[in-house]
C-alpha cells in the first residue's frame, strides 16, 4: 500500500519516478536488509518525495545538488542508496557552514548593536596602501591639516609654561629708565637671586577662516619676576609683563612647501601683539607690534623667522619707550630641535645697532619613561630685553626649574 501511494505521489509531480524504490524483486531479494534500513529509507524517501517537486518548481534549471540526488535514486541496492544519501547530506551540511566563524560573527550584528559600516579614511579618500608623509610638529601644533583640526575654543599651550625657583642675575638694574619716563628711584634693594614664572595659553576662535585650513587664534603670555628669596624686602615682584596677541595662521599649499636641503615651508602667520608691564610713571613700559612670521621644518627640527614692525603712538609723550627697537631689533629667529628625550630651543633677536639678545632653553623629562610628563627646565639669557622694564639694560641670567603645565 505504501509503495502504491509513493508511486502515485511521485508520478504527479515533475520529479523523477519513484517506482524503483518499491520494486517487488528488490524487496524479495533484500528482505533482511530492508527490515533494518526501512525506517531510515522511509524518512529519506518521504523527504525526497516532498522536496523534489518544490525544488523543480522553484528553479527550472537543475543544480548540482539535485543531480546528485537523482543519482542516488537510481541505485537499486539499499546499502549503496543509503550510503549515497549520507554522502549527499554531509556535503550539503558542509556547504551551508560559514567560511569563518569570525567572519560570520562580524557579518551578523549582536542584539542591540547597530550594524557596522565601512567608511573612507578622513578626507573621503579611500585607502590605497600609500600613507601620506608625516607633516611634522608644526602641523600638529598649529592644526594645519584637516586631520589635525581640533575645533575652536580649546585652550592649549603657546609658549613654554615653566617655574624657575632659582634664577641668578649677573647685574642688577637699580635705576631703570627710558627717554620719555626718566629714571626710576627709591626702588627696593633687589637681590641677585630670584624666581621666574611664565604662563602662556592660546585658543582658536575661527577655523577655516578666509583661506582653506587657515585659522584665527588669540593668545596670552604672562611673565613674572619674583624676588622670592628677598625676605628683607618682603619678597616683592620685581616686574610682570602682560602680552595679549591675535594671530592668523595660514598653512602653505603643497606646491610652495619644498625648499632647498629638504626643508619644508609649513606656514605663514600674521599677528598683532601688545606688551606692557602694567606700571605707571617712571616704571611704565609698553609697545605694540605687527608681525609676519614663517615656519619651516626638516625632520625633528623646526624654525621660525619673524619680522616685526613697531606701531608708533600718536604722540611721543604717550610712548613709554620710543627707542625700544634699537635694543630689540625688528627680527626674531627661533630654532627648535629634539635631541633624544631632550627638547632645546635657541631664540635670537639681532639688532642693527649691535645690541639684541640670545636665549637658550632646554628641558628633559623627570621620568625618562614619560617624556610628556613633568620636565626639568633650564634657561640662559644674554643681552637686552630680559624683561620689558629692562629693555635697554644688558643682562645675563641662568635659571633652573620645572615645566608646570602640559596642554
From TrEMBL:
Cofactor detail note: Binds 1 Ca(2+) ion per monomer. In the dimeric form the Ca(2+) is bound by different amino acids with binding of each Ca(2+) shared with ligands coming from each monomer. The Ca(2+) ion may have a role in catalysis.
- Annotated coiled-coil segments of the chain: none
Family annotation (InterPro entries): PLipase_A1 (IPR003187), PLipase_A1_sf (IPR036541)
Q: Which UniProt keywords apply?
A: Calcium, Cell outer membrane, Hydrolase, Lipid degradation, Lipid metabolism, Membrane, Metal-binding, Signal, Transmembrane, Transmembrane beta strand
Pfam families of this UniProt entry?
A: PLA1
Cofactors that this protein relies on: Ca(2+)
Q: Where is this region: Disordered?
A: 103-136
Active site positions, chain numbering: 274, 276
Where mainly found? membrane
CC terms in the record's Gene Ontology section = cell outer membrane
* Enzyme kind, highest EC tier: hydrolase
Entry binding sites for Ca(2+): 234, 284, 320
Q: What EC number(s) does this enzyme carry?
A: 3.1.1.32, 3.1.1.4
> Which GO BP terms, alphabetically?
lipid catabolic process
Cellular compartments annotated = Cell outer membrane
**What topology does it adopt in the membrane?**
Multi-pass membrane protein
Q: Which reaction does it catalyse?
A: a 1,2-diacyl-sn-glycero-3-phosphocholine + H2O = a 1-acyl-sn-glycero-3-phosphocholine + a fatty acid + H(+); a 1,2-diacyl-sn-glycero-3-phosphocholine + H2O = a 2-acyl-sn-glycero-3-phosphocholine + a fatty acid + H(+)
GO MF, any single term: metal ion binding
**Gene3D superfamilies, per the entry:** Phospholipase A1 (2.40.230.10)
| Protein purpose | Hydrolysis of phosphatidylcholine with phospholipase A2 (EC 3.1.1.4) and phospholipase A1 (EC 3.1.1.32) activities.
Q: Which family does it belong to?
A: Belongs to the phospholipase A1 family.
Quaternary arrangement and interactors, per the entry? Homodimer; dimerization is reversible, and the dimeric form is the active one.
What protein name applies here? Phospholipase A1
Q: Which organism is it from?
A: Aquabacterium soli
Amino acid at each position: 500500500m505504501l509503495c502504491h501511494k509513493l508511486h502515485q505521489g511521485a508520478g504527479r509531480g515533475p520529479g523523477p519516478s519513484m517506482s524503483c524504490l518499491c520494486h517487488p524483486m528488490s524487496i524479495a531479494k533484500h528482505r533482511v536488509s530492508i527490515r533494518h534500513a526501512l525506517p531510515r529509507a522511509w524518512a529519506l524517501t518521504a523527504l525526497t518525495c516532498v522536496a523534489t517537486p518544490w525544488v523543480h518548481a522553484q528553479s527550472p534549471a537543475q543544480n548540482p545538488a539535485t543531480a546528485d540526488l537523482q543519482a542516488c535514486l537510481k541505485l537499486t541496492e539499499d546499502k549503496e542508496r543509503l550510503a549515497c544519501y549520507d554522502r549527499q547530506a554531509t556535503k550539503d551540511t558542509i556547504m551551508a557552514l560559514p567560511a569563518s566563524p569570525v567572519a560570520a560573527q562580524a557579518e551578523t550584528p549582536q542584539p542591540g548593536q547597530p550594524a557596522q559600516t565601512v567608511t573612507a579614511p578622513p578626507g573621503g579618500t579611500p585607502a590605497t596602501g600609500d600613507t601620506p608623509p608625516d607633516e611634522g610638529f608644526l602641523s600638529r601644533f598649529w592644526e594645519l591639516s584637516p586631520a589635525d583640526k581640533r575645533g575652536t575654543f580649546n585652550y592649549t599651550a603657546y609658549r613654554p609654561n615653566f617655574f624657575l625657583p632659582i634664577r641668578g642675575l649677573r647685574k642688577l638694574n637699580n635705576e631703570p629708565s627710558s627717554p620719555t619716563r626718566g629714571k626710576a628711584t627709591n626702588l627696593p634693594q633687589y637681590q641677585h637671586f630670584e624666581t621666574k614664572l611664565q604662563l602662556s595659553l592660546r585658543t582658536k576662535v575661527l577655523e577655516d577662516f578666509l583661506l582653506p585650513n587657515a585659522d584665527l587664534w588669540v593668545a596670552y603670555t604672562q611673565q613674572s619676576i619674583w624676588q622670592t628669596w628677598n625676605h628683607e624686602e618682603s619678597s616683592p615682584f620685581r616686574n610682570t609683563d602682560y602680552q595679549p596677541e591675535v594671530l592668523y595662521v595660514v598653512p602653505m599649499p603643497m606646491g610652495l612647501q619644498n625648499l632647498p636641503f629638504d626643508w619644508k615651508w609649513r606656514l605663514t602667520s600674521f599677528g598683532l601683539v601688545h606688551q606692557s608691564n602694567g606700571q605707571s610713571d617712571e616704571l611704565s613700559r609698553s609697545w605694540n607690534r605687527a608681525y609676519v612670521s614663517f615656519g619651516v621644518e626638516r625632520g625633528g627640527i623646526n624654525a621660525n623667522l619673524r619680522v616685526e614692525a613697531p606701531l608708533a603712538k600718536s604722540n611721543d609723550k604717550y610712548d613709554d619707550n620710543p627707542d625700544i627697537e634699537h635694543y630689540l631689533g625688528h627680527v626674531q629667529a627661533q630654532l627648535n630641535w629634539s635631541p633624544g628625550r631632550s627638547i632645546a630651543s635657541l631664540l635670537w633677536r639681532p639688532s642693527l645697532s649691535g645690541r639684541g639678545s640670545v636665549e637658550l632653553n632646554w628641558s628633559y623629562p623627570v621620568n625618562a619613561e614619560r617624556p610628556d610628563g613633568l620636565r626639568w627646565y633650564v634657561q640662559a639669557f644674554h643681552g637686552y630685553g630680559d624683561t620689558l622694564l629692562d629693555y635697554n639694560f644688558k643682562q645675563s641670567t641662568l635659571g633652573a626649574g620645572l615645566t608646570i603645565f602640559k596642554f
